[in-house]
């Protein structure tokens, strides 16, 4: 295995030589837990390329339109605010609340449904997804010794895999019963349309600036319907929730930055309505805060890549079959790109006139064709969630509680905040 920490070398590998570095070798628990076919994260070759185009197009249609996505996020934020208001300022660990909200947003996009916060089916789904993600971590003992999957030690993980798989498969069955080609509701419906018509569609320009004319989605079959959605549920929920947890922690830790963001929100939005995605261009500080949190506190490495042939990166020889990790932490803390890289400073993304700058320098979602397809949706979520929270509440640590370590802790490919409690005080 090699780890690439130099930004120029990483861009050379994952963008300029993407045809050599974009494969992923399936090993560890993935190899014994789930089929690779239909996985947006683990499948390789032409089927993966087809699937990536399909997913990018579908998410653009369903999740990334500002009005539609804004309504989904707004609805869930209002439900969350109703829950928080009942606390009357009493402290709470917001982790479960945030996970529930982001899971409901993803459910709306992928499955076309939502659950109440305390619905036992939803609690079970969240718990099972977290169990799977925790064990698929690079540092999980089960991931390093996958034969343990068949032992009693992995019983809880096996149950979680079975539960989530059955849940998604049942959703596909129910969607198929009520499928209407003229009214596509969610990601599952778009999968079903491809399966039913064997599919010829016109591709828009995708994330790699490749243009395709009429394109046949010949690889998408029944298994893609549930396997692709399963990837979205497992990976999409926890990462967005983690981003929001980090952002709230930073706002309580840096109250002077929180006050500046609230002042900008009050000036632009006023006190008579909630912020919307349409307000984002006039709320650059909130966007800058979210991006600085991404830079300082989210990604550590890429998911492992795998070379398909011998190659060179500058003077370095990389043989075929080499596992490659991209050091995203290094890119996001490069002193040649970010002055004082270990200082939390959202203003680095603001030009003298207050406009945004340098947002694309942050690489927490990866780079190249394998970067997270849900990045735009996740960015919209975090912006609007935080704008609404800061509009409505002051976020403060409870008196007497220890102040959490702002550096967090590494878990697999993610940096997680220590557990903390907050008081949400109505403004």
TrEMBL record:
Membrane topology value: Peripheral membrane protein
BP GO terms, sorted: organic acid metabolic process; steroid metabolic process; xenobiotic metabolic process
UniProt keyword Lyase present: no
Name of the protein in question: Cytochrome P450
Gene3D superfamilies found in the cross-reference section: Cytochrome P450
InterPro entries attached to this UniProt entry: Cyt_P450 (IPR001128), Cyt_P450_CS (IPR017972), Cyt_P450_E_grp-I (IPR002401), Cyt_P450_sf (IPR036396), Cytochrome_P450_fam2 (IPR050182)
GO cellular component, one term: endoplasmic reticulum membrane
Positions annotated to bind heme: 372
GO MF annotation list: heme binding; iron ion binding; oxidoreductase activity, acting on paired donors, with incorporation or reduction of molecular oxygen, reduced flavin or flavoprotein as one donor, and incorporation of one atom of oxygen; steroid hydroxylase activity
Originating species: Strongylocentrotus purpuratus (Purple sea urchin)
Keywords: Endoplasmic reticulum, Heme, Iron, Membrane, Metal-binding, Microsome, Monooxygenase, Oxidoreductase
Protein localization: Endoplasmic reticulum membrane; Microsome membrane
Cofactor(s) required, per the database record: heme
Cited PANTHER family: CYTOCHROME P450 2U1 (PTHR24300:SF397), CYTOCHROME P450 508A4-RELATED (PTHR24300)
Protein family: Belongs to the cytochrome P450 family.
């Amino acid at each position: 295995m090699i780890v690439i920490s130099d930004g120029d070398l990483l861009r050379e590998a994952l963008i300029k030589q993407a045809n050599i570095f974009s494969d992923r070798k399936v090993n560890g628990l993935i190899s014994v837990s789930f089929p690779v076919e239909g996985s947006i994260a683990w499948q390789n070759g032409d089927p993966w390329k087809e699937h990536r185009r399909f997913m990018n197009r579908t998410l653009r249609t369903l999740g990334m339109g500002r009005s539609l996505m804004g309504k989904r996020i707004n609805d869930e934020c209002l439900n969350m605010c109703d829950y928080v208001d009942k606390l009357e300022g009493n402290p709470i660990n917001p982790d479960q609340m945030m996970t529930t909200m982001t899971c409901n947003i993803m459910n709306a996009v992928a499955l076309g449904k939502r659950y109440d916060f305390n619905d036992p089916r939803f609690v079970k789904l969240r718990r099972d997804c977290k169990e799977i993600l925790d064990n698929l971590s690079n540092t999980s003992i089960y991931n390093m010794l996958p034969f343990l999957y068949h032992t009693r030690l992995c019983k809880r993980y096996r149950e979680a895999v079975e539960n989530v798989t059955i849940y998604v498969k049942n959703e596909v069955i129910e969607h198929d019963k009520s499928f209407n080609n003229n009214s596509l509701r969610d990601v599952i419906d778009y999968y079903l349309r491809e399966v039913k018509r064997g599919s010829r569609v016109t591709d828009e320009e995708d994330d790699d600036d490749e243009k395709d004319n009429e394109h046949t989605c010949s690889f998408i079959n029944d298994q893609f319907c549930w396997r692709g959605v399963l990837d979205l549920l497992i990976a999409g929920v926890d990462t967005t929730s983690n981003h929001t947890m980090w952002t709230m922690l930073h706002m309580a830790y840096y109250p002077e930055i929180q006050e500046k963001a609230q002042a900008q929100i009050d000036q632009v939005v006023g006190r008579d309505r909630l912020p919307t995605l349409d307000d984002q261009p006039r709320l650059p500080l909130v966007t800058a805060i979210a991006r600085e949190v991404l830079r300082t506190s989210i990604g550590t490495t890429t998911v492992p890549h795998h070379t398909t042939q011998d190659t060179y990166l500058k003077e370095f020889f990389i043989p075929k079959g080499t596992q490659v990790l991209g050091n995203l932490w290094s890119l996001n803390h490069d002193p040649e790109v970010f002055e004082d890289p270990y200082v939390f400073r959202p203003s680095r993304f603001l030009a003298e006139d207050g406009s945004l700058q340098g947002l694309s320098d942050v690489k927490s979602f990866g780079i190249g064709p394998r970067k997270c397809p849900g990045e735009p949706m996740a960015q919209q979520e975090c912006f609007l969630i935080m704008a609404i929270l800061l509009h409505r509440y002051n976020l403060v640590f409870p008196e007497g509680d220890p102040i959490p370590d702002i550096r967090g802790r590494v878990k697999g490919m993610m940096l997680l905040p220590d557990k903390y409690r907050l008081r949400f005080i109505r403004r």
